[in-house]
Specification:
The chain has 582 residues and is an alpha+beta fold. It contains 16 helices and 17 strands. It has helices spanning 2-14, 20-58, 83-89, 93-102, 114-130, 175-197, 216-222, 234-244, 247-263, 308-363, 369-396, 409-419, 421-426, 446-463, 518-528, 570-579, and strands at residues 68-72, 78-81, 134-141, 147-158, 164-173, 201-205, 211-214, 267-274, 280-291, 297-306, 404-407, 430-434, 442-445, 473-482, 485-491, 532-537, 543-550. Helix 1 runs antiparallel to helix 2, helix 10 runs antiparallel to helix 11 (369-396) and helix 14 packs antiparallel against helix 15 (518-528). The longest helix has 56 residues, at 308-363. The protein starts with a helix and ends with a helix.
């Protein structure tokens, strides 16, 4: 603008005054327009120069590309290779110029591994013919002869008509990445082989409980094929697994597993699972969740252990124990019968002898009433002696034990629950325990009270053999009835009690193989401890047997009645001998 104003001023000074009116102004106007055009050209040149200067200083070049950078003509002839690429393959700039001048389009193939050459050549030809981007991975020989894995990426540059003007590419070293991936695959393969070799049935599930993996032993054990059920979605697979569980265990299996998936608690259950040959076998199933640092569940890992043989061995041992117990009871009864017969033999013989003598005295002519009366007194004494023997026999079942001490009934009951856990599991019985934590100590013989609880619990288990599985519930409860009395109640869901008054009588039983002494002994033990025991039908179904014990802090009298012997003492024997007839 300054140039234009200066031109106008100069034209006004130089122009004659007489010509200003005619053509002077025309020349001024032409000069001003020329000056203004010159100013525009100068300004445009300054802007372009500034742009080129900034662009050249800031734009990256092929030499700045990380990795091996290169560029080719549309026909594949090399036009540029950055220094990093030349350094890697061991070529000098002059050697590279000679290769470029010869127009050899396959010079790079001498550096590619022979095993990768055919594939790389085919991909490069395909990109040159179609214009599609090149993406390839191959091994390239370094200047020291070592091959390393590289990833080639190249795209075509096009003009405004879509014609390819050049190819620009980068070759990135991925050798370390490939080695890490290979090591990871090898580690995964080793882990999978380890899991498939372990003699256990292993499975995995997602945090919401959908099966995600079954190891090879589990697939073989259940008969599932990896190409069959495992290729389906998680829902059909879960349904297949649940269907393989024994119908009697299916409900408890789904309930326990669902509760674990919902709460995140570990899963533990013994159930029966169908094997590939159709047999159901006992399984000890366990599962634990894998959590992240925030406690969120990432995966469930479970294991199934085949314990069928172990369960059968335990059942065989249990049956052997029961047979041994029956044999011991029979032997004990036989021994007790012999002892009873031996002890009662002497007074009964005396009774018979005196009765014969009494009869003779009455048949005498005349009857000797005095001698008959004396003989009758001897008969009464002999009967009393027999009664004493029976009392001593009963005393064996009413002894207070040899070591009474202060015990906690809740502790005893918990120990009994552990002892009978296998029987509960075998009978599919759910145990409910309601123990009053405020129970005081009681002075009792721990072994005898434990035997009482075990007897009542075993009776409750046997009473529910015909009860449906879902309704088999055994409940043990303790409570403080009063400050002086505490109670223990054992309830079942069996068929109930037909005669609650007679079940505690000796030799009364409702079992096919029972002898009717269990509850009688329980009553004797409880009564010896100063308590009582009773039974009643539960509301709806089943029965409840309850016994009470007094709250004591001192030991009771532990002396055995009559010395605990079936044999009369010398004084008794002498007295009995005196009653024998002459």
């Amino acid at each position: 603008m300054a140039i234009a104003m200066a031109g106008i001023a100069a034209a006004a000074i130089e122009a004659p005054s007489d010509t200003m009116a005619t053509d002077g102004w025309l020349r001024v106007a032409v000069f001003v327009a020329s000056a203004f055009g010159l100013w525009l050209v100068v300004q445009l040149f300054r802007v372009v120069s500034f742009y080129e200067q900034v662009y050249k200083k800031t734009q990256p070049t092929m030499e700045d590309i990380p990795g091996l950078g290169w560029s080719c003509y549309p026909d594949g002839r090399m036009r540029f290779v950055n220094p990093k690429a030349l350094e890697f393959v061991g070529l000098t700039v002059d050697e590279m110029k000679r290769l470029m001048e010869t127009g050899d389009t396959a010079w790079w193939q001498r550096f590619v591994h022979p095993d990768d050459l055919e594939r790389s050549r085919a991909l490069w030809k395909h990109s040159l013919s179609t214009g599609e981007p090149l993406i390839d991975e191959q091994r390239v020989r370094r200047h020291d002869g070592t091959y390393r894995w590289f990833r080639d990426s190249a795209v075509a540059s096009r003009d405004e008509h879509g014609r390819i003007t050049a190819w620009y590419g980068t070759t990135v070293d991925i050798d370390d990445q490939r080695k890490a991936e290979a090591a990871l695959r090898e580690s995964e393969q080793q882990l999978r082989q380890l899991i498939d070799t372990v003699p256990a049935l292993i499975w995995c599930a997602t945090p919401d409980g959908k099966p995600s993996y079954l190891n090879e032993p589990l697939l073989r054990w259940t008969g599932m094929s990896e190409s069959g059920e495992m290729t389906g979605t998680a829902s059909p697979l879960a349904a297949t697994i649940i269907e393989a569980v024994h119908p009697d265990d299916r409900s408890s299996f789904q309930s326990a597993l669902g509760q674990s998936f919902k709460s995140g608690d570990p899963f533990m259950l013994k159930y029966r699972l169908r094997r590939a040959d159709g047999d159901y076998r006992w399984i000890d199933g366990k599962a634990e969740p894998l959590r992240d640092t925030d406690g969120r569940i990432l995966q469930w890992y479970g294991v199934c252990l085949d314990i069928h043989d172990e369960m059968q061995a335990q059942e065989a041992v249990r049956l052997a124990d029961e047979r041994l117990a029956r044999a011991l009871r029979a032997a004990s009864l036989s021994e007790m019968s012999v002892s009873i017969a031996h002890e009662l033999n002497q007074p009964l013989q005396a009774i018979v002898a005196n009765a014969n003598a009494f009869q003779r005295w009455l048949r005498a002519n005349p009857p000797n009433l005095e001698r008959a009366s004396r003989t009758a007194e001897w008969i009464i004494r002999d009967v009393d002696a027999a009664a004493d023997v029976v009392s001593r026999i009963r005393a064996l079942f009413t002894q207070a034990g040899h070591s009474r001490q202060l015990i906690q009934l809740n502790t005893v009951i918990n120990e009994v629950c552990e002892l009978i856990s296998d029987k509960l599991q075998a009978g599919k019985i759910r145990l409910e325990v309601d123990l009053d934590p405020s129970l005081p100590s009681v002075g009792a013989d721990r072994v005898q009270i434990e035997q009482v609880v075990i007897n009542l619990v075993r009776n409750a288990i046997e009473a529910m053999h015909e009860t449906p599985v879902h309704a088999r519930i055994l409940r043990i409860a303790t409570r403080l009835r009063s400050p002086e009395i505490l109670e223990v109640a054992v309830s079942d869901r069996g068929h109930g009690i037909a005669d609650s008054d007679r079940i505690f009588e000796a030799f009364f039983t409702t079992k096919k193989d029972g002898i009717g002494m269990g509850l009688a002994i329980c009553r004797s033990v409880v009564e010896t401890h100063g308590g009582r025991v009773w039974a009643e039908d539960a509301p709806g179904r089943g029965a409840t047997v309850t016994f009470s014990l007094p709250v004591e802090s001192q030991e009771r009298d532990r002396e055995l009645i009559g010395g605990g012997s079936l044999i009369p003492n010398e004084a008794q024997a002498g007295d009995e001998n005196k009653r024998l007839p002459a």
